[in-house]
Write a structure and sequence with these properties.
Shape: globular
Structural class: alpha/beta
Helix content: 25-40%
Strand order of the largest sheet: 7-6-3-10-11-12
Order of helices and strands: EEHEEEHEHEEEHEHEEHHEEEHHH
Strand content: 25-35%
Distance between the termini: 19 Å
Oligomer: single chain
Largest sheet: 6 strands, parallel
Radius of gyration: 20 Å
Number of helices: 10
Length: 356
């Protein structure tokens, strides 16, 4: 278990164990040779920036002066971008429409070295877009005023599923780990999920491969994965167990493993950090790395899952990969909006924790 210390507000803060810094840095070095496939709902995160000028005379609404806009990968796309930022080789796998938002995502991929072999473009699918209007004045931090969601409501067709599954069958043998990122945007249909499970089951029979499930909606649809990453409320919804103490925490983790038939399980607990039950049944509680520096939790789960998918094949002990993912999540929440955490940023944060 990671060592901890208590702060004045009675919350636990991550304290690096002796010798851990060397282990983290060794993993980051090895990640450069890791290959990851991120299969999931690729979202286009659109940000529209402007300054608030006045209140409209037409209605009680703000009038914003538009400055600029950008589109970055969100959902499974953000997870892929985080894997790439760590230096691992990553295949982004999913369906995108034939629209402007999808073009922007693919452009980002190509500019950042993310492989697009697993992208299925389809005229039958509308890319899921999350548009965030960001506003502030000259001397204030930009804040999200409203979010507008579009697309991602229509499930992929059987034809598109078959085309994508063919790509997946060719990619899976090449990678060391697979991250299944479910944002409920139409990819994981009953048909697609069943066929994907068949591909994964075939691969399980040949070798050890780390498969991680990051899903709010289909936690139990993927059996025999390495682990899943539900948060505490999702764990409660799945098990009916309210986590109040160590005993109930272990009980919840064990029930999740039984229900999913996974080898291990990770529950993310917000300000309480993470709880990991390994293959031997040992509990590893990992406190958060920062307490009072949280700017935005958007995409933090993607960062955690991406670091895990990249680090597990490179780590001698899975709990060390979990600790590294926890550190990555701590860096992400200091950034606003959808963002990536690089290996250089992780290295700097490891050094900061080590001398704290």
């Amino acid at each position: 278990m990671a060592s901890i210390r208590k702060e004045s507000n009675n919350r636990k803060l991550f304290q690096m164990k002796a010798g851990r810094q060397k282990e983290y840095l060794e993993i980051l070095k090895k990640i450069k040779k890791v290959k990851v496939a991120v299969i999931g709902d690729i979202v286009a995160d659109e940000y529209i920036y402007g300054n608030c000028e006045r209140i409209s005379r037409e209605a009680p609404v703000l009038i914003l002066r538009h400055h600029n806009s950008k589109i970055t990968p969100g959902g499974a796309g953000n997870a892929s971008a985080n894997v790439a930022a760590l230096g691992a080789e990553v295949y982004s796998v999913g369906v995108l429409g034939m629209d402007r938002a999808a073009d922007a995502v693919v452009k980002f991929y190509k500019e950042n070295g993310i492989k697009v072999d697993g992208i299925q473009r389809s005229k039958n699918y509308e890319t899921c877009v999350k548009t965030r209007i960001m506003s502030g004045s000259l001397h204030t931090t930009l804040q999200q005023v409203i979010r507008i969601d579009s697309g991602g409501e229509i499930e992929i067709t059987k034809k598109d599923a078959d085309l994508l599954l063919k790509k997946i069958a060719a990619i899976v043998p090449k990678v060391d780990s697979i991250l299944l990122s479910d944002y409920n945007c139409g990819l994981f249909t009953e048909y697609f999920t069943l066929k994907l499970q068949e591909i994964l089951k075939k691969e399980y029979s040949k070798r050890k491969i780390f498969v991680l499930v990051d899903s709010r909606h289909r936690l139990f649809d993927f059996k025999n994965a390495y682990l899943a990453t539900p948060n505490e409320s999702e764990a409660f919804e799945a098990t009916g167990i309210k986590i109040k103490d160590t005993e109930s925490l272990i009980k919840s983790l064990k029930k999740l493993i039984k229900l999913t038939e996974n080898k291990a399980m990770l529950i993310t607990r917000g300000s309480q950090g993470m709880a990991f039950l390994d293959e031997e049944g040992a509990l590893h509680e990992v406190p958060i790395t920062r307490i009072d520096e949280i700017a935005d939790v958007t995409g933090a789960g993607d960062t955690v899952a991406a670091v895990l998918a990249s680090a597990l094949p490179a780590a001698k002990k899975p709990e060390v990969a979990v600790e590294l993912a926890n550190i990555g999540g701590g860096v992400k929440v200091m950034k606003r909006g959808t963002a990536q955490v690089s290996d250089a940023e992780l290295t700097a944060e490891i050094a900061r924790i080590g001398i704290r």
